């Protein structure tokens, strides 16, 4: 249950990040023909990944029933964690999408970033095993707070959140989202010319 509860947000993040980063190049014919708010294209890629997340969540609910694992009141906070995962994938995806338009070879870097992110995120282990002196540095990974939040909401018993690391991780997510939107808006005017 520990790993599957962490795989849900990670799978959503990685799928959304990959599809969002490639969304503008994949829809280049649409971007050059008609004007519309360009932010719709990467947002649609993230929303599509969210549908996959919902299907995976139904599978998790089935597993919880099978193993008779009853969630606590913490499950009510799950929409908050989903929103944070959505913001993290949207922010990082907007950065990568705008860089991918400018530098076409950048799309080959994205799978390596996603693979590396899997190993440095607490998917197969709890972040409690990270020594206390490294917890804040570890929380610079925005998915640390999201994954631990999912575990805390779904598993309940035995899952804990490091408050300082949590707030640092949430600040990184907010920074990613704000700067991602800013970067996307700055480069948006040149998309039709560069694509």
Features:
single chain, 9 helices, mainly alpha, 195 residues
Mean pLDDT across the residues is 86
Q: Count the helices. How many?
A: 9
Total DSSP E strands: 0
| Ends distance | 44 Å
Low-confidence segments, given as residue ranges, are none
Structural class determined from secondary elements: mainly alpha
Strand content: under 5%
Secondary-structure element pattern, one letter each: HHHHHHHHH
What's the main sheet like?
Answer: none
Helix share of residues? over 70%
Which outline best applies?
globular
Task: Specify Rg, calculated over alpha carbons.
Answer: 18 Å
Whole-number tally of structural domains: 1
Describe this structure as you would to a colleague.
The protein has 195 residues and is mostly helical. The chain has one domain. The protein has helices at residues 2-26, 28-33, 40-66, 78-102, 110-120, 135-138, 142-154, 163-188, 191-194. Helix 7 (142-154) crosses helix 8. The radius of gyration is 18 Å and the shape is globular.
List the topology elements.
Elements: H1 2-26, H2 28-33, H3 40-66, H4 78-102, H5 110-120, H6 135-138, H7 142-154, H8 163-188, H9 191-194
Helix pairs in contact: 1-3, 1-4, 1-5, 1-7, 3-4, 4-7, 4-8, 7-8
Question: Can you give me a brief rundown of this structure?
Answer:
This protein is mostly helical and 195 residues long. The protein contains nine helices and no strands. The mean pLDDT is 86.
């Amino acid at each position: 249950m520990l790993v599957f509860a962490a795989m849900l947000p990670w799978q959503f993040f990685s799928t959304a990040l990959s599809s969002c980063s490639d969304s503008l190049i994949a829809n280049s014919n649409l971007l050059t023909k008609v004007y519309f708010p360009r932010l719709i294209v990467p947002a649609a890629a993230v929303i599509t990944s969210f549908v996959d997340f919902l299907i995976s969540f139904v599978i998790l609910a089935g597993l919880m029933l099978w193993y008779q694992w009853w969630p606590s009141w913490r499950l009510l906070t799950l929409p908050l964690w989903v929103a944070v995962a959505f913001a993290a994938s949207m922010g990082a995806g907007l950065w990568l999408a705008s860089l991918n338009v400018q530098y076409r070879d950048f799309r080959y870097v994205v799978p390596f970033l996603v693979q590396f992110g899997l190993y440095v995120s607490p998917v197969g282990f709890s972040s409690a095993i990270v020594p206390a002196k490294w917890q804040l540095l570890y929380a610079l990974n925005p998915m640390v707070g999201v994954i631990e939040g999912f575990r805390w909401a779904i598993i309940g018993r035995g899952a804990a959140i490091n408050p300082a690391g949590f707030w640092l991780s949430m600040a990184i997510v907010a920074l990613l989202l704000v700067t991602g939107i800013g970067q996307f808006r700055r480069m948006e005017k040149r998309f039709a010319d560069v694509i």
